[in-house]
Amino acid sequence: MVFRGSCIALAYLLAVSCAEAARSSASNPELRADAIMPIRTHSLFAPYVDSTLQNNYWDYGGDAIIDTNRYVMLTQDRRNETGWLWSRLPIEANDFEITSEFVMKGKSATTGGDGFAMWLTTTRAQPGPVFGSMNRWNGLGIIFDTFPNQPHRGFFPRISVVENDGTKTYNTDSDGEKQDLAQCAMQLRHTPAETRLRFTYVKDVYMELAIQNQEWNQWNKCFRIPPVNLPGPPYLGFSASTGEVTDTHSIVSVWTNKIVYNSRTPADLDKEREQAFADDKSSHWWAIHQKKEARRAHEHGLISYMLIRFFISLAWLIKWLVILALVAVGSFVGYEVYKRKVQSAYKNRRMMA
Protein backbone atom coordinates (compact mmCIF):
# COMPACT_ATOMS: atom_id res chain seq x y z
CA MET A 1 0.00 0.00 0.00
CA VAL A 2 3.00 2.29 0.47
CA PHE A 3 3.73 1.65 -3.20
CA ARG A 4 0.17 2.85 -4.03
CA GLY A 5 0.77 6.12 -2.18
CA SER A 6 4.09 6.62 -3.97
CA CYS A 7 2.41 5.99 -7.31
CA ILE A 8 -0.25 8.57 -6.51
CA ALA A 9 2.41 11.10 -5.60
CA LEU A 10 4.39 10.36 -8.77
CA ALA A 11 1.26 10.56 -10.90
CA TYR A 12 0.45 13.88 -9.26
CA LEU A 13 3.85 15.36 -10.09
CA LEU A 14 3.70 14.07 -13.67
CA ALA A 15 0.20 15.45 -14.10
CA VAL A 16 1.33 18.83 -12.80
CA SER A 17 4.25 18.89 -15.21
CA CYS A 18 1.95 18.10 -18.10
CA ALA A 19 -0.50 20.69 -16.87
CA GLU A 20 2.20 23.35 -16.88
CA ALA A 21 2.97 22.60 -20.51
CA ALA A 22 -0.71 22.62 -21.45
CA ARG A 23 -1.48 25.65 -19.26
CA SER A 24 -4.44 23.81 -17.72
CA SER A 25 -5.10 21.61 -14.71
CA ALA A 26 -4.96 17.85 -15.29
CA SER A 27 -8.35 17.33 -13.65
CA ASN A 28 -9.79 20.66 -14.78
CA PRO A 29 -9.32 21.27 -18.51
CA GLU A 30 -11.55 24.37 -18.34
CA LEU A 31 -8.97 26.11 -16.17
CA ARG A 32 -6.56 28.16 -18.27
CA ALA A 33 -3.48 29.83 -16.87
CA ASP A 34 0.09 30.71 -17.75
CA ALA A 35 1.37 27.95 -15.45
CA ILE A 36 0.20 25.43 -12.85
CA MET A 37 2.72 24.92 -10.05
CA PRO A 38 2.50 22.37 -7.21
CA ILE A 39 2.56 23.70 -3.67
CA ARG A 40 4.48 21.04 -1.74
CA THR A 41 3.73 22.56 1.65
CA HIS A 42 0.00 22.01 1.14
CA SER A 43 0.05 18.57 -0.46
CA LEU A 44 -0.09 15.28 1.41
CA PHE A 45 0.35 11.65 0.37
CA ALA A 46 1.09 8.29 1.98
CA PRO A 47 2.94 7.52 4.18
CA TYR A 48 1.93 10.98 5.56
CA VAL A 49 4.48 11.04 8.41
CA ASP A 50 8.15 10.29 8.97
CA SER A 51 9.66 7.80 11.40
CA THR A 52 8.85 10.12 14.33
CA LEU A 53 5.17 10.20 13.29
CA GLN A 54 5.50 13.87 12.33
CA ASN A 55 5.10 15.84 9.12
CA ASN A 56 7.04 19.00 8.32
CA TYR A 57 4.04 20.72 6.81
CA TRP A 58 0.97 19.23 8.51
CA ASP A 59 -0.36 18.68 12.03
CA TYR A 60 -3.10 16.30 13.12
CA GLY A 61 -4.91 15.91 16.41
CA GLY A 62 -8.03 15.05 18.33
CA ASP A 63 -9.11 11.50 17.57
CA ALA A 64 -7.29 11.46 14.22
CA ILE A 65 -5.01 8.51 13.57
CA ILE A 66 -2.55 7.78 10.78
CA ASP A 67 -2.61 4.62 8.72
CA THR A 68 0.63 5.11 6.82
CA ASN A 69 -0.52 2.77 4.04
CA ARG A 70 -3.95 4.20 3.40
CA TYR A 71 -5.16 7.47 4.95
CA VAL A 72 -5.40 9.98 7.74
CA MET A 73 -8.52 8.86 9.60
CA LEU A 74 -10.10 11.90 11.22
CA THR A 75 -12.74 9.86 13.04
CA GLN A 76 -13.43 6.20 13.42
CA ASP A 77 -16.90 4.67 13.18
CA ARG A 78 -17.53 5.50 16.83
CA ARG A 79 -19.74 7.93 18.68
CA ASN A 80 -18.65 11.41 19.72
CA GLU A 81 -15.28 11.57 18.02
CA THR A 82 -13.59 14.63 16.51
CA GLY A 83 -10.35 14.85 14.59
CA TRP A 84 -8.49 17.37 12.49
CA LEU A 85 -5.68 17.82 9.98
CA TRP A 86 -4.16 21.28 9.38
CA SER A 87 -1.38 22.77 7.30
CA ARG A 88 1.35 24.43 9.31
CA LEU A 89 1.76 27.24 6.81
CA PRO A 90 -0.83 29.49 5.10
CA ILE A 91 -1.40 29.42 1.36
CA GLU A 92 0.40 32.47 -0.03
CA ALA A 93 -0.91 32.13 -3.59
CA ASN A 94 -3.68 34.47 -4.73
CA ASP A 95 -5.07 31.84 -7.12
CA PHE A 96 -4.99 28.14 -6.30
CA GLU A 97 -6.67 24.77 -6.72
CA ILE A 98 -7.06 22.10 -4.03
CA THR A 99 -7.88 18.50 -4.86
CA SER A 100 -8.42 15.92 -2.16
CA GLU A 101 -9.47 12.30 -2.10
CA PHE A 102 -11.59 11.40 0.91
CA VAL A 103 -13.58 8.47 2.26
CA MET A 104 -16.80 8.51 4.27
CA LYS A 105 -18.28 5.14 5.15
CA GLY A 106 -19.92 3.32 8.01
CA LYS A 107 -21.90 0.27 9.04
CA SER A 108 -25.16 1.75 7.80
CA ALA A 109 -25.68 1.94 4.06
CA THR A 110 -28.21 4.76 4.34
CA THR A 111 -27.41 6.87 7.43
CA GLY A 112 -24.09 8.49 8.23
CA GLY A 113 -22.86 11.20 10.50
CA ASP A 114 -21.98 13.77 11.12
CA GLY A 115 -19.67 14.78 8.29
CA PHE A 116 -16.47 16.70 7.68
CA ALA A 117 -15.35 20.14 6.51
CA MET A 118 -12.52 21.71 4.57
CA TRP A 119 -11.35 25.04 5.93
CA LEU A 120 -9.54 28.08 4.53
CA THR A 121 -9.20 30.31 7.58
CA THR A 122 -6.85 32.72 9.34
CA THR A 123 -6.54 30.45 12.39
CA ARG A 124 -5.66 26.76 12.54
CA ALA A 125 -6.08 23.68 14.69
CA GLN A 126 -8.79 25.08 16.95
CA PRO A 127 -11.18 22.23 17.91
CA GLY A 128 -14.83 23.08 18.28
CA PRO A 129 -18.46 22.17 17.62
CA VAL A 130 -18.59 22.69 13.84
CA PHE A 131 -17.57 19.30 12.47
CA GLY A 132 -14.65 19.18 14.86
CA SER A 133 -13.49 22.77 14.36
CA MET A 134 -14.14 26.13 16.01
CA ASN A 135 -17.27 28.19 15.51
CA ARG A 136 -17.01 31.84 14.43
CA TRP A 137 -14.11 31.14 12.13
CA ASN A 138 -12.60 33.85 9.95
CA GLY A 139 -12.55 32.70 6.36
CA LEU A 140 -14.27 30.00 4.35
CA GLY A 141 -15.69 26.62 5.31
CA ILE A 142 -16.85 23.96 2.85
CA ILE A 143 -19.06 21.57 4.79
CA PHE A 144 -19.88 18.00 3.81
CA ASP A 145 -22.89 17.27 6.00
CA THR A 146 -24.20 13.70 5.98
CA PHE A 147 -26.80 13.89 8.74
CA PRO A 148 -29.73 16.35 8.92
CA ASN A 149 -30.29 17.61 12.46
CA GLN A 150 -33.76 18.80 11.49
CA PRO A 151 -36.09 18.19 8.53
CA HIS A 152 -34.97 19.90 5.32
CA ARG A 153 -36.19 20.12 1.81
CA GLY A 154 -33.87 18.32 -0.54
CA PHE A 155 -31.42 15.51 -0.35
CA PHE A 156 -28.65 14.65 2.08
CA PRO A 157 -25.62 14.45 2.09
CA ARG A 158 -25.43 18.17 1.46
CA ILE A 159 -22.38 20.25 0.60
CA SER A 160 -22.44 23.94 1.49
CA VAL A 161 -19.95 26.78 1.43
CA VAL A 162 -20.13 29.21 4.34
CA GLU A 163 -18.23 32.46 4.80
CA ASN A 164 -17.62 33.89 8.25
CA ASP A 165 -15.87 37.03 9.44
CA GLY A 166 -15.19 35.72 12.92
CA THR A 167 -18.36 37.17 14.46
CA LYS A 168 -21.18 34.94 13.20
CA THR A 169 -22.27 31.77 14.96
CA TYR A 170 -22.84 28.78 12.71
CA ASN A 171 -26.11 27.11 13.73
CA THR A 172 -25.35 23.39 13.89
CA ASP A 173 -28.88 22.58 15.07
CA SER A 174 -30.31 23.84 11.78
CA ASP A 175 -27.35 22.56 9.71
CA GLY A 176 -26.45 26.14 8.83
CA GLU A 177 -29.78 26.73 7.09
CA LYS A 178 -29.77 30.06 5.19
CA GLN A 179 -26.16 30.73 6.22
CA ASP A 180 -24.49 29.33 3.12
CA LEU A 181 -23.41 31.09 -0.05
CA ALA A 182 -24.20 28.04 -2.18
CA GLN A 183 -25.02 24.37 -1.73
CA CYS A 184 -25.65 21.13 -3.54
CA ALA A 185 -26.63 17.55 -2.72
CA MET A 186 -24.50 14.61 -3.86
CA GLN A 187 -23.94 11.02 -2.85
CA LEU A 188 -20.70 10.85 -0.87
CA ARG A 189 -20.90 7.53 0.98
CA HIS A 190 -20.44 4.11 -0.61
CA THR A 191 -19.87 5.56 -4.06
CA PRO A 192 -18.90 3.52 -7.15
CA ALA A 193 -15.75 5.62 -7.67
CA GLU A 194 -13.23 7.18 -5.34
CA THR A 195 -14.64 10.39 -3.91
CA ARG A 196 -12.65 13.52 -4.56
CA LEU A 197 -13.24 17.22 -4.19
CA ARG A 198 -11.71 19.90 -6.36
CA PHE A 199 -11.87 23.48 -5.13
CA THR A 200 -10.72 26.20 -7.53
CA TYR A 201 -10.18 29.77 -6.35
CA VAL A 202 -9.40 32.42 -8.96
CA LYS A 203 -9.30 35.77 -7.22
CA ASP A 204 -11.65 38.43 -8.60
CA VAL A 205 -13.13 35.91 -11.06
CA TYR A 206 -14.80 32.86 -9.49
CA MET A 207 -14.56 30.00 -7.02
CA GLU A 208 -15.82 26.54 -7.81
CA LEU A 209 -16.29 23.17 -6.15
CA ALA A 210 -16.56 19.99 -8.19
CA ILE A 211 -16.95 16.41 -6.97
CA GLN A 212 -15.84 13.09 -8.42
CA ASN A 213 -18.10 10.36 -7.07
CA GLN A 214 -19.44 8.26 -9.96
CA GLU A 215 -16.67 7.70 -12.51
CA TRP A 216 -12.94 8.28 -12.59
CA ASN A 217 -12.10 11.85 -13.62
CA GLN A 218 -15.75 12.70 -14.23
CA TRP A 219 -16.46 15.82 -12.21
CA ASN A 220 -19.88 17.08 -11.17
CA LYS A 221 -20.03 20.78 -10.45
CA CYS A 222 -21.46 21.63 -7.04
CA PHE A 223 -21.23 25.40 -7.37
CA ARG A 224 -19.46 28.17 -9.21
CA ILE A 225 -19.97 31.58 -7.64
CA PRO A 226 -18.19 34.94 -7.36
CA PRO A 227 -15.25 34.51 -4.98
CA VAL A 228 -15.25 35.77 -1.44
CA ASN A 229 -12.37 37.98 -0.37
CA LEU A 230 -10.28 35.79 1.89
CA PRO A 231 -9.23 37.77 4.98
CA GLY A 232 -5.56 36.89 4.53
CA PRO A 233 -3.34 34.01 3.48
CA PRO A 234 -5.47 31.09 4.72
CA TYR A 235 -4.45 27.90 6.46
CA LEU A 236 -5.81 24.75 4.88
CA GLY A 237 -7.52 22.31 7.19
CA PHE A 238 -9.84 19.32 7.40
CA SER A 239 -11.91 18.30 10.40
CA ALA A 240 -14.67 15.80 11.12
CA SER A 241 -16.99 14.72 13.90
CA THR A 242 -19.45 12.01 14.84
CA GLY A 243 -22.43 12.10 17.19
CA GLU A 244 -25.07 9.52 17.88
CA VAL A 245 -24.74 8.39 14.26
CA THR A 246 -21.25 7.57 13.07
CA ASP A 247 -18.95 7.18 10.09
CA THR A 248 -15.27 6.94 9.42
CA HIS A 249 -14.01 10.16 7.86
CA SER A 250 -10.64 9.82 6.15
CA ILE A 251 -8.38 11.99 4.00
CA VAL A 252 -6.48 9.85 1.50
CA SER A 253 -4.53 12.59 -0.26
CA VAL A 254 -4.33 16.33 -0.77
CA TRP A 255 -2.63 18.13 -3.62
CA THR A 256 -2.60 21.87 -4.02
CA ASN A 257 -1.56 23.86 -7.08
CA LYS A 258 -0.73 27.50 -7.52
CA ILE A 259 -2.44 28.99 -10.56
CA VAL A 260 -0.07 31.43 -12.22
CA TYR A 261 -1.14 34.39 -14.35
CA ASN A 262 1.72 36.53 -15.61
CA SER A 263 -0.34 39.63 -16.31
CA ARG A 264 -4.03 40.40 -16.70
CA THR A 265 -5.62 43.73 -17.49
CA PRO A 266 -9.03 44.76 -16.09
CA ALA A 267 -10.43 43.95 -19.53
CA ASP A 268 -8.97 40.43 -19.28
CA LEU A 269 -10.62 39.96 -15.88
CA ASP A 270 -13.96 41.15 -17.26
CA LYS A 271 -13.69 38.67 -20.11
CA GLU A 272 -12.82 35.82 -17.72
CA ARG A 273 -15.81 36.63 -15.52
CA GLU A 274 -18.15 36.68 -18.48
CA GLN A 275 -16.79 33.34 -19.67
CA ALA A 276 -16.94 31.82 -16.19
CA PHE A 277 -20.64 32.64 -15.80
CA ALA A 278 -21.72 32.48 -19.42
CA ASP A 279 -23.97 29.46 -18.77
CA ASP A 280 -25.43 30.74 -15.53
CA LYS A 281 -27.27 33.99 -16.08
CA SER A 282 -28.83 33.89 -12.61
CA SER A 283 -25.44 34.36 -10.93
CA HIS A 284 -23.60 36.08 -13.77
CA TRP A 285 -20.76 37.93 -12.08
CA TRP A 286 -20.73 40.67 -14.66
CA ALA A 287 -24.47 41.23 -14.38
CA ILE A 288 -24.20 41.39 -10.61
CA HIS A 289 -21.21 43.70 -10.91
CA GLN A 290 -23.04 45.93 -13.36
CA LYS A 291 -26.07 46.11 -11.08
CA LYS A 292 -23.83 47.11 -8.18
CA GLU A 293 -22.11 49.71 -10.32
CA ALA A 294 -25.47 51.03 -11.55
CA ARG A 295 -26.76 51.16 -8.00
CA ARG A 296 -23.59 52.92 -6.86
CA ALA A 297 -23.85 55.38 -9.76
CA HIS A 298 -27.50 55.99 -8.94
CA GLU A 299 -26.61 56.58 -5.28
CA HIS A 300 -23.80 58.93 -6.28
CA GLY A 301 -26.11 60.69 -8.72
CA LEU A 302 -28.77 61.01 -6.05
CA ILE A 303 -26.24 62.41 -3.60
CA SER A 304 -24.97 64.87 -6.22
CA TYR A 305 -28.54 65.91 -7.03
CA MET A 306 -29.32 66.43 -3.35
CA LEU A 307 -26.15 68.47 -2.85
CA ILE A 308 -26.97 70.63 -5.87
CA ARG A 309 -30.53 71.17 -4.63
CA PHE A 310 -29.18 72.01 -1.18
CA PHE A 311 -26.79 74.65 -2.48
CA ILE A 312 -29.45 76.11 -4.80
CA SER A 313 -31.86 76.36 -1.87
CA LEU A 314 -29.11 77.81 0.29
CA ALA A 315 -28.29 80.41 -2.39
CA TRP A 316 -32.00 81.24 -2.73
CA LEU A 317 -32.30 81.65 1.03
CA ILE A 318 -29.18 83.81 1.22
CA LYS A 319 -30.47 85.98 -1.65
CA TRP A 320 -33.78 86.66 0.09
CA LEU A 321 -32.06 87.20 3.41
CA VAL A 322 -29.83 89.79 1.75
CA ILE A 323 -32.88 91.42 0.11
CA LEU A 324 -34.73 91.48 3.40
CA ALA A 325 -31.66 92.87 5.12
CA LEU A 326 -31.34 95.60 2.49
CA VAL A 327 -35.03 96.41 2.80
CA ALA A 328 -34.73 96.53 6.57
CA VAL A 329 -31.64 98.74 6.39
CA GLY A 330 -33.30 100.98 3.78
CA SER A 331 -36.42 101.21 5.89
CA PHE A 332 -34.41 102.04 8.98
CA VAL A 333 -32.37 104.70 7.17
CA GLY A 334 -35.51 106.14 5.59
CA TYR A 335 -37.23 106.23 8.95
CA GLU A 336 -34.28 107.98 10.57
CA VAL A 337 -34.17 110.57 7.75
CA TYR A 338 -37.91 111.13 8.01
CA LYS A 339 -37.67 111.37 11.79
CA ARG A 340 -34.94 114.03 11.59
CA LYS A 341 -36.91 116.03 9.03
CA VAL A 342 -39.98 115.99 11.24
CA GLN A 343 -37.94 117.10 14.27
CA SER A 344 -36.27 119.87 12.23
CA ALA A 345 -39.60 121.13 10.92
CA TYR A 346 -41.04 121.13 14.46
CA LYS A 347 -38.11 123.19 15.75
CA ASN A 348 -38.46 125.69 12.90
CA ARG A 349 -42.17 126.23 13.64
CA ARG A 350 -41.47 126.88 17.31
CA MET A 351 -38.77 129.42 16.52
CA MET A 352 -41.07 131.28 14.10
CA ALA A 353 -43.79 131.33 16.72
UniProtKB/TrEMBL annotation:
Annotated Gene Ontology cellular components are: COPII-coated ER to Golgi transport vesicle; endoplasmic reticulum membrane; endoplasmic reticulum-Golgi intermediate compartment; Golgi membrane
The UniProt entry lists membrane topology as: Single-pass type I membrane protein
Tell me the keywords, alphabetical order: Lectin, Membrane, Signal, Transmembrane, Transmembrane helix
Q: Does the keyword tRNA-binding apply?
A: no
Q: Which residues form the signal peptide?
A: 1-21
The UniProt transmembrane annotation reads 314-338
| Protein name (database record) | L-type lectin-like domain-containing protein C126.08c
